[in-house]
Model the fold of this input.
Amino acid sequence: MTLSKDLWNLNQDLAQACLDNPFVQGVARGTLDRQRFTYYVGQDAFFLEAFARAYSLAAVKSPDWEGFNAFHTLTTGVLEELRLHEGYAADWGVDLRVVEPAPATRRYTDFLLATAWGSDVGLVAAAMTPCLRLYAFLGQQLATETLPDHDYVDWIGTYSSPEFEQLAQTLESLSDRYAKMTEAVKSTYRYAMLCERDFFQAAWEMTA
Done:
């Protein structure tokens, strides 16, 4: 068993809470109110910009070239996600340039960037890994042999894809390489999972 698998197993309650969230279930069925999803797209785009910056800081802190290169490669995956969001924004009339981060979004990005600036590369990887592993888990859980035909099929297809699973595994391998199972690593990973849960709940509870 690896560190990343142990951390994931320790947080199955939060992974299940995210899967059961009415926002995620609405995406699965295609019944989610469009306004909630466009709100989520804007908030997630804001988050992903911070995530890309955290990758860059982790790359700088990497003690070897292999880690430096891996973190930069992972940044490409974030840029692909942002292009997906830009596509949704263009189709559904969302101006990503004027998105104001909600409290749940700001808590997550502030935590992520503070960790990226102030901690070693192992703790940074531990803070970032939950996002990719959780989204791969959600995508794979929501996907069927034939993806459903509704407005959110691209979202499910992106996060259930082998390419996204590979990104998650790459980041987990960096956690395994640089982090040790300390209380700081465990609490950092869990806090990121709590932020994910709250992020989905904020999108569900959004008000116009």
